[in-house]
Amino acid sequence: MTFMTDARALEHPATADIRLEVVLHALSDPMRLIVVRTLAAATDEVACSDVPLPVTKSTTTHHFRVLREAGVIQQIYRGTSKMNALRRADLDALFPGLLDRVLAAADGQAARLDEPPLPLRVATDA
């Protein structure tokens, strides 16, 4: 089951339809993991364009779609921007501790490999 509210609304799986193997597949890609880590670090919704990935725009769109269809993120249009947020409450209810463990492991790997910090370009309202 999916839910939609209007013509510009994007389809998302209902919480009960989110599957562990689909979530794990979505989280297994390095670019999608950057997106998830960026959203986890944000205090508000984040526009797709504020998550700088070293891939083409069409590939970036693909990664966001995979995350949305897996139930990892929620996307909503705000004006002309597509805003993104983690579906943390849904994931925590279905798979307690999974998201926190994945994020901690990703942070640990980044530190172990001496990777630069995430390239956050998230705009803040002052």
List the helices and strands and how they pair.
Layout: E1 2-3, E2 12-13, H1 20-27, H2 30-41, E3 46-47, H3 57-70, E4 73-78, E5 81-86, H4 88-94, H5 98-112
Helix pairs in contact: 1-3
What does this molecule look like?
- The chain is of the alpha+beta class and 126 residues long.
- Helix content is 44%, strand content 14%.
- Strand 1 and strand 2 form a beta hairpin.
- Helix 1 runs antiparallel to helix 3.
- The N and C termini lie far apart (39 Å).
What structural keywords apply?
126 residues; alpha+beta; 3-stranded antiparallel sheet; two-stranded antiparallel ribbon; 5 strands; 44% helix; disordered C terminus
| Mean pLDDT metric | 89
What is the H-and-E element order? EEHHEHEEHH
Query: How many angstroms separate the termini?
Result: 39 Å
Strand content: 5-15%
Strand order of the largest sheet: 3-5-4
Largest sheet: 3 strands, antiparallel
Tertiary shape: globular
Question: Summed up, what is this model?
Answer:
With 126 residues, the protein is an alpha+beta fold. 44% of the residues lie in helices and 14% in strands.
